[in-house]
């Protein structure tokens, strides 16, 4: 176990590179940074073999697709439209050229699947490495409306999650236990797809920000327990969440029974669903639900913000519960 954490590293970076409002007025800490000219947002996400993906579970193309989605989701979570991006490829020399080509095509396919005609590769780097990694730096067009940040949640706001919950974690468990035989692929394909080729809620995020329907928004990349904690902490607000509202699908429940696990763990602590966490004024809830219906995206109301609470109070109906956060930690 490391003697330091990811958060400690980020805090030390922040101390060394003190805030420069003349360069980035919002500083660091959101899913994207915003340039001083107000024209662009920027984010970087990397995917590293052995950490973020295992090529015995998925193809190089799947790994490239997932990394692209992660970057698209960061921009979408602030309500902006993804535009140009750069790509740094670290490649093992023993890789077949066809698999490399398929990975590049998968990045292009990911952009097409999200209907982002103006999002295009503008540069990058290719280097030799002992492990494969993809690093994408994505730009977002600064909209003519305020971007949404994770720090704006207010007392009384409704806390909701938009999109899949726990699907990617279920797919990961299928792969981890080597249960990708024909019957499993047929029965549990939505979870394998959610893990290998997840989709970002680009147009949902843009619509919510454009209509100014939420006070705060961020994507779920590290699990609801972790990411909701980040949103509320940065907003200097607490929250009450009812985990009883988390209802797994019938097929997810069946898979969990087969694997002898609790599906709620996938739903609370599973990462990389790239759903959106939002803090919504009560008066705007119906409008957000309407956007979700229009885009065929699930809406799950988790609870509400409460300025009188420190952290999160987890409830199951009327009973307070104590939950263990099993979300992935880089340096545990």
Structural class: alpha+beta
Counting DSSP E segments of at least 2 residues, the number of strands comes to 12
- Portion in beta strands: 15-25%
Helix proportion = 25-40%
Give the overall silhouette.
globular
From the N-terminal CA to the C-terminal CA, the straight-line distance is 5 Å
Adjacency order of strands in the biggest sheet:
7-9-6-10-8-11-12
What's the main sheet like?
Answer: 7 strands, mixed
Kindly provide the radius of gyration, computed on alpha-carbon positions and rounded to a whole number of angstroms: 20 Å
Tell me what the structure shows:
The chain is built from eleven helices and twelve strands. The protein has 332 residues and is an alpha+beta fold. A seven-stranded mixed β-sheet has the order 7-9-6-10-8-11-12. It has a five-stranded mixed β-sheet with strand order 1-2-5-3-4. Strand 3, helix 3 and strand 4 form a beta-alpha-beta unit. Helix 2 packs parallel to helix 3 and helix 2 packs parallel to helix 7. The longest helix has 17 residues. It is globular and about 55 Å long.
């Amino acid at each position: 176990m490391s003697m330091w954490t990811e958060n400690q590293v980020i805090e030390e970076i922040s101390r060394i590179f003190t805030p420069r409002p003349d360069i980035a007025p919002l500083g660091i800490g959101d899913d994207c940074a915003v340039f001083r000219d107000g024209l662009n947002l920027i984010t970087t996400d990397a995917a590293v073999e052995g950490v973020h993906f295992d090529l015995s579970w998925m193809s190089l193309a799947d790994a490239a697709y997932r990394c692209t989605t992660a970057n698209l989701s960061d921009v979408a979570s602030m309500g902006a439209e993804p535009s140009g991006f750069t790509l740094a490829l670290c490649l093992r020399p023993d890789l077949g050229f066809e698999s490399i080509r398929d990975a590049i095509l998968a990045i292009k396919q990911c952009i097409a699947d999200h209907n982002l005609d103006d999002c295009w590769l503008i540069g990058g780097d290719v280097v030799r490495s002992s492990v494969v990694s993809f690093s994408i730096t994505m730009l977002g067009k600064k909209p003519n409306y305020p971007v949404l940040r994770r720090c704006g949640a207010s007392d009384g706001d409704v806390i909701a999650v938009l999109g899949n919950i726990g699907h990617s974690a279920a797919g990961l468990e299928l792969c981890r236990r080597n249960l990708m035989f024909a019957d499993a692929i047929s029965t549990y394909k939505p979870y394998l797809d959610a893990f290998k080729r997840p989709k970002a809620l680009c147009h949902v995020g843009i619509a919510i920000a454009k209509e100014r329907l939420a006070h705060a928004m961020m994507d779920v990349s590290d699990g609801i327990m972790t990411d909701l904690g980040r949103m509320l902490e940065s907003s200097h607000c607490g929250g009450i969440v009812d985990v009883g509202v988390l209802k797994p699908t019938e097929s997810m429940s069946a898979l969990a029974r087969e694997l002898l696990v609790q599906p709620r763990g996938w739903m609370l602590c599973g990462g990389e669903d790239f759903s959106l966490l939002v803090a919504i004024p009560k008066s705007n809830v119906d409008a957000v639900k309407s956007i979700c219906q229009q885009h065929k995206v699930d809406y799950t109301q988790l609870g509400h913000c409460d300025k009188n609470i420190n952290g999160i109070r987890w409830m199951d109906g009327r009973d307070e519960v104590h939950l263990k956060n099993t979300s992935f930690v880089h340096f545990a």
